[in-house]
Amino acid sequence: AMEKSYASMFLLLVAISCALAKDVGKKETKETTAKPKLPQTLSRGWGDQLIWTQTYEEALFRSKHSNKPVMIIHHLDDCPHSQALKKVFAEHKDIQKLAEKFILLNLVYETTDKNLSPDGQYVPRIMFIDPSLTVRADITGRYSNRLYAYEPSDVSLLYSNMQKALKLLKTEL
């Protein structure tokens, strides 16, 4: 009698998983299959497989408690410069790998923290904050009029700035 109940249990499981698979298959078009299945709301396309925080406050809290620096990206959906930078950022394998070592936040609105706009509220701009919650004004891009701006062609500079943010962490804390 025991074996029989195991067998029916197994059949039931198989039936359930097939039903699920069928259901999924119906909803999917070619477009959705290529993309990862995670909700992409927080990444906004900057790296769908990375873990993004929802708010500035959450990012600071996590940074302090995990001893990881924050990388914060201010951008806008209707800004072509933001879109162009997002594309190279998301497609750059080394940046995506290194980004795992950061608490990540991307925002389409400004924070109330004035330390995050030391030279203006332009987009896209990328800033780093260390776990002592200090904004790293010393990690800048190549433009003197917009210190935290990066163009798609600056992607290797951004990568080395990310490395710098992680290196500073080890030497200072």
UniProtKB/TrEMBL annotation:
Cellular compartments per GO CC: endoplasmic reticulum; extracellular region
Cellular compartments annotated: Endoplasmic reticulum; Secreted
Keywords: Endoplasmic reticulum, Secreted, Signal
Signal sequence extent: 1-21
GO molecular function: dystroglycan binding
Keyword Endoplasmic reticulum on entry: yes
Alphabetized Gene3D superfamilies for the sequence: Glutaredoxin (3.40.30.10)
First-listed, main subcellular location of the protein, grouped into a coarse class: endoplasmic reticulum
Keyword flag Secreted: yes
TM regions (residue ranges): none
Family of the protein in this entry: Belongs to the AGR family.
Name this polypeptide is given: AGR2 protein
Organism field: Fregata magnificens
